[in-house]
């Protein structure tokens, strides 16, 4: 049926009668939806065939009233959408015959029903369709499942021949220590755990989540969405239910539903932008002469930058395959416009290889964002690889976990161990330059230099720079700023997703 519909749609849209029988509603109506999707014009019709109705069922006065009220309501709701319910009295066969011809109908859609008399009616309509040349599309919408459908499992003998291969079969190295386990079961468990805390869900404000907590401070559902183990639609509607019960809840772009809208945003732009994952030939992306420096790229990729915050992030990424959004910000900014001036495409490829949630649209979109190649325009604000992580984790627990070589440094040195004296380094059991590298760049110098380069690029390519510009520019931050001024909470400022120059 679907294939047929597809072929037809490729030729010409239908002129359709949607025949209401039961299904006297507009919401969740698969047959009506199919009619709308496949047609240039849809006639919403109810045939009031009293002869048929009274011959197949007993309808008391109360039910007649109820039916007429339902039709009245359907009429009103359709009117609200600029349409009309067309109620035609008479026997359904001649009524259909007349109107199919009168309106040049090419398709009749209707709810599939299971009662013998409705099945017979559908069969008769199909015969009429063959005679007059219209198609009939009936779709299950009255029960949860298609009662006719029987689905047998495959032969059990097949299971052994077609088993899931072991990693060793594919010569993939043994499982690392990643705490993430693949699959729908695990993904749904994670989903349920988060949804159980309705207060957390309702007040979720992305910029206030912590990039360097030892356990994810956000949902950690991205690997499951990325592989399709958990449905984003399920998540979205479950969130709607929670919001409906909450007195107050956060709003997009910072809310949880807002996060899904970001996903949708990047999917939408990616689907309409040629060469989305590349700089060359990508119309929304600034064309930048990034440095080609394999050695520096390698240092960044292998957590050898000499900046513990960046190296801890890159270690978590390599070991576990997931890092917090703001940690991604820090690592991406450092590689591109912040410190190394290396192309976002290189970073995107590394993320693609190492992230469990690697995703064509979201990865490229965010890399363009972070490198200020598109979407993000406050390019003068550059993350400091020392101060950024310190704000939410002053003791450096995150660094101690992922870079155990630094774990004995006092907190005041944990983000910049090269500033410790030789004696203090000895006491910490880690000599900078020997056990852990010196910083690969002078951040202040490098970021100032890159800022000038970026300024120049943007002046030269002003038109491209304007393409993805929004009035609010960074909606995540604008919303938060509004909230803050309303609440007059100055201390929340420190936990915000702000960048430091
Ligand atoms: C440089 C960079 C690269 C990234 N690459 C990817 C990637 O390849 N795959 C990926 O799924 N995310 C990517 N992100 C976006 C974001 O960091 C992750 O989606 C998020 O951190 C996943 O954690 P979570 O599931 O706990 O998110 P939550 O905050 O719990 O959000 C729920 C879901 O919303 C979606 N979402 C959240 N933030 C974003 C965002 N900024 N853009 C689009 N969708 C979002 C994700 O599907 C996420 O699972 C990238 C971000 C940056 C800065």
TrEMBL record:
GO terms under cellular component: cytoplasm; nucleus
**GO annotations under biological process?**
circadian regulation of gene expression; entrainment of circadian clock by photoperiod; negative regulation of DNA-templated transcription
Q: Listed GO molecular functions?
A: DNA binding; FAD binding
Establish whether keyword Flavoprotein is in the entry. Answer: yes
What UniProt keywords are attached to this protein's entry?
Chromophore, FAD, Flavoprotein
Where along the sequence does the record put site: Electron transfer via tryptophanyl radical?
Answer: 290, 344, 367
Q: Which positions bind FAD?
A: 218-222, 259-266, 357-359
Flavoprotein as UniProt keyword = yes
Query: Which InterPro entries does the entry link to?
Result: Crypto/Photolyase_FAD-like_sf, Crypto/Photolyase_N_sf, Cryptochr/Photolyase_FAD-bd, Cryptochrome/DNA_photolyase_1, DNA_photolyase_N, Rossmann-like_a/b/a_fold
Cite the PROSITE patterns for this sequence.
Answer: PHR_CRY_ALPHA_BETA
Q: Extract the ranges annotated as region (Disordered).
A: 467-501
Query: What's a Pfam family this protein contains?
Result: DNA_photolyase
The Swiss-Prot or TrEMBL record lists the needed cofactor(s) as: FAD
* Cofactor detail note: Binds 1 FAD per subunit.
Q: Domain (Photolyase/cryptochrome alpha/beta): give its ranges.
A: 14-144
Basic and acidic residues bias: start-end ranges: 476-490
Listed PANTHER family: CRYPTOCHROME (PTHR11455), PHOTOLYASE_CRYPTOCHROME ALPHA_BETA DOMAIN-CONTAINING PROTEIN (PTHR11455:SF63)
Q: Which family does it belong to?
A: Belongs to the DNA photolyase class-1 family.
Protein name, as recorded: Photolyase/cryptochrome alpha/beta domain-containing protein
Source organism per entry reads Anas platyrhynchos platyrhynchos (Northern mallard)
Which lineage ranks, top first, belong to the organism behind this chain?
Eukaryota, Metazoa, Chordata, Craniata, Vertebrata
